[in-house]
Amino acid sequence: MNYSLLLITAPDQAQAISSALDQYSVVTCVSEQEALTMVSRQEVYLALLADDLPGVAAGKLLRQLQEISPGLSAFLLSSSADTQALNTALAEGFLGVVPQPVQTEQLVRVVAQVWERVRLQEENTRLRTLLPLYSLGEQFLSSSSEQEVLDGLLAAVSELTPCSNLSVLLFDQQRSCLQIAASRGLDKELVRSICLQPGEKIAGWVFSHGKPVILNREDQADSIFAPFLQRPDIVSSISCPLVIREKIIGVLNISQQATDRRFSEADMEMVSVVSAQAAMALENVRALTQLQVNTRLQTLLEQYMAPEVAALLLARDTDLMQLGDIQEVTILFADIRNFTTLVQHLELGILRAFLNDFFNIFTETVFEQQGSVDKFMGDAVLALFGAPVENVAANQAAVEAALTIRHRFEQLRLHWLEQSEVFVDLDLGIGVTCGSVFLGNVGSSRRFDYTVIGNEVNLAQRLAAESSQCSIYLTEAVQRDLAASYALDRLEEVQLRGIETPLPVYVVRGRRS
């Protein structure tokens, strides 16, 4: 954490206190005006304010400091540490009183507690800031051209960060260099003249290495990029790679001038999230452009995950929006239980990695059984068997997939349990139904989804919600087809949420020998 600790005390005390807090960045002030000036120029979260400075009223000074920096916390350094002094300090807005002469261990403990609280507050703020950023993806994905995506990226970053200059450099394959594709605050002649080779200057280095870079004026001289820094008016900057499927396509640059504010790690993380969303949108736009050349082939590859679905639709010479029919299918619905606990205790990056592992297991298993994955829904997945790819043993294929998913899920849970105890209660609910549903394209002419609609879909979801301990619940229609091949137990009739009448439900114990 780069925030400074402000020490407002007499010079003879400052040295001893600064030495005790040598693991922090301590800024010492010996007067009221000096303290006010420092807080206005530098981000400070904690102040240690002595009550014996001549002509300085500690309580009044604290109020003035907090007007400039509302998040500032403070302790009073006082030779009076009785109950009355403490109550007075608390009434004036101090967190407490640190007795003078200062005891090193106590002072270090007090400061550490405040810094931990600040760290937790920053983490909560970061999460509240980052989560809404993911909604920007929908805005980016609605763009119909690369320029629209890039302009949206600059607009989003400009709104989220106090930056003076912004530019997006994309790699030009024909010229083999990075060129500015969109910018704000830069001279037009400079924009036209830029052509950087990979590895050249800061943007070229970021492009070659795929790593973001943050530079502030105070640490630029010690940076490996010091030879490239030619503009002393820039006080802070961030360069972030634009990555599509592990391929770097360009670099986003932002910088600040005429301000005392510096970019932080939180700023860089936020910019990285927005850049990732924009990169995904660029990929989407480029794919849509390619559609005009490759017609339906690319459309199918973009719209459908299962290869079988793409092959089926490619063979159809019809309006895609008219594609759909009532069909008999088997539906498998799997829902991770106790997922809310993971969301509350895991970092977003770790949570995403776990979900990717689970979705990979699910998808590979479904494809092995000639099924297709209809959609991912947060922590749940819906798969189809029997259509659009014909399968005369759809019920058996679905149950075989469910048994394999259950086994692989338990292995996955044990693997992640080695990394965090929050996975100890993780569970999986699985429901399998079969019946008549509508299977086809649903949506608008601009955006549609190949999906399944019908009561059986709701029923599979309700079965999965009732299931626990990785049990596989079946409806009676599925059970009748599999009784000879699998050991099944009949449960009492279950009242499923949203279903009018109780239904007989069967649970799979395993395959018969």
Protein architecture, described:
Mean pLDDT is 81; it is low at 296-305. The strands form three sheets. Strands 11, 12, 13, 14, 15, 16, 17 and 18 form an eight-stranded mixed sheet that branches. The chain is built from 17 helices and 18 strands. The chain has 513 residues and is α/β, with parallel strands linked by helices. The chain folds into three domains: 4-125, Response regulator (Rossmann fold); 136-290, Beta-Lactamase, CATH 3.30.450.40; 304-511, Nucleotide cyclase, GGDEF domain (Alpha-Beta Plaits). It is flat.
Overall pLDDT metric = 81
In DSSP terms (H or I, runs of 4 or more residues), the helix count works out at: 17
Strand content: 25-35%
Q: Biggest β-sheet: count, sense, barrel? A: 8 strands, mixed
What is the count of distinct domains?
Answer: 3
- By CATH, the superfamily of the largest domain comes out as Nucleotide cyclase, GGDEF domain
* C-alpha-based Rg, rounded: 31 Å
CA-CA gap between termini: 61 Å
Beta strand count: 18
Low-confidence stretches: 296-305
**Assigned CATH architecture of the largest domain:** 2-Layer Sandwich
The amount of helix comes to: 40-55%
Could you say which structural class the secondary elements and strand pairing correspond to?
alpha/beta
CATH top level label of the largest domain: Alpha Beta
Coarse shape: flat
CATH topology category name of the largest domain: Alpha-Beta Plaits
